[in-house]
Specification:
Blueprint: H1 3-41, E1 44-48, E2 53-56, H2 57-64, E3 69-74, H3 79-94, E4 99-107, H4 111-118, H5 124-134, H6 140-152, E5 156-160, H7 163-172, H8 179-183, H9 194-207, H10 214-238, E6 243-249, H11 250-253, H12 258-265, E7 270-275, E8 293-298
Length: 302
């Protein structure tokens, strides 16, 4: 074999080796870029109302984690609100402390079904049937949250009062309940501050359709808030090391709703995160008296 032939083979070998090395480095770079993009895409942006500035969830997490109760509001039909809720849950779970997810969407007496789902003893089809017995929003809006809870074994806790109770109060007021029903519920009457009264009037206009009295509708809203607050505190009293994320509609989650009743019965610290709703929940329209953070959305939604 001639020297020129040897040099050609040697050069080709070096070229192949260099090419393989380059391709390997390029593959690593693609993975890193992909991971970076995923991380950025999933970064939840918040507006800190106390500090009057925009921050990330990662930056807010040390302060949020100091509370045992974190209320994360939603408009039930907004997929983006549920994605933001899931990001909060994942971030808190990554902290390593015991976590529970409490739900407006389930009645308190659904506990066995919720335990069976998280414990892997119930099929998805059976759990969806239980879900629709409790709630009427499409399953896909909440499915990822429930599936994540099952995957990492986060307990799910139903907070809601039986629908028949709130419907009866909405039709006939708290006094229409029987003594037996009243014995299981906190007393309510429609006495709230002006701001919360304004909210209830908005909800009344949106849902009552004119066939319910405003006073009765207001009492039904307060029964809803108080019972969910009491059920949350009852769970945390039994599970003393657990942090609870409460998922509820904006009207229940903001500080005039469930948190007001929590504060009347406990000194347990809480934080409230509400989703941005243009013209309603955004900078300049609400204050730290209403919430601690506004969820501006994931970075990809900017």
């Amino acid at each position: 074999m001639t020297n020129s032939r040897i040099r050609f083979i040697s050069s080709r070998g070096m070229l192949l080796s260099t090419t393989r090395h380059f391709l390997a480095l390029f593959a690593v770079w693609l993975v890193l870029v992909s991971n970076c993009r995923t991380s950025v895409a999933e970064e939840l942006r918040l507006y800190d109302l106390a500090q009057d500035k925009e921050i990330t969830l990662a930056e807010a997490l040390p302060e949020i984690s100091k509370s045992r109760l974190i209320l994360v509001g939603e408009q039930h039909d907004r997929e983006s609100h549920h994605r933001a809720q899931l990001q909060v849950i994942k971030a808190l779970h990554a902290e390593g402390e015991p976590l529970a997810i409490a739900l407006e969407m389930f009645q308190a007496d659904s506990r066995q079904a919720l335990d069976d789902w998280v414990g892997g003893r119930m099929s998805a089809a059976d759990f969806q049937r239980v879900y629709y017995e409790n709630w009427n929003s499409p399953w896909p809006l909440y499915g990822e949250i429930f599936e994540y809870a099952r995957k990492v074994k986060i307990p799910l806790v139903g907070l809601n009062v039986a629908r028949a109770i709130t419907q009866q109060v909405a039709r006939g007021g708290f006094e229409s309940l029987s003594p037996e029903q009243k014995a299981k519920l906190p007393f309510v009457e429609c006495r709230v501050d002006r701001k919360y009264m304004d909210f209830i009037r908005q909800a009344y206009g949106a849902h009552a359709h004119g066939h319910l009295s405003f006073g009765n509708f207001c009492e039904a809203q307060l029964v809803w808030d108080k019972v969910m607050a009491l059920n949350a505190l009852s769970y945390l009293k039994t599970n003393e090391r657990t942090t609870m994320v409460i998922l509820a509609g904006i009207g229940h989650a903001w500080k005039k709703g469930i948190p007001d009743h929590l504060g009347n019965r406990s000194s347990m610290p809480f934080k409230v995160l509400l989703p941005r709703v243009p013209g309603n929940i955004e900078k300049g329209l609400i204050s730290p008296a209403d919430a601690d953070y506004i969820m501006l959305g994931l970075s990809q939604e900017r």
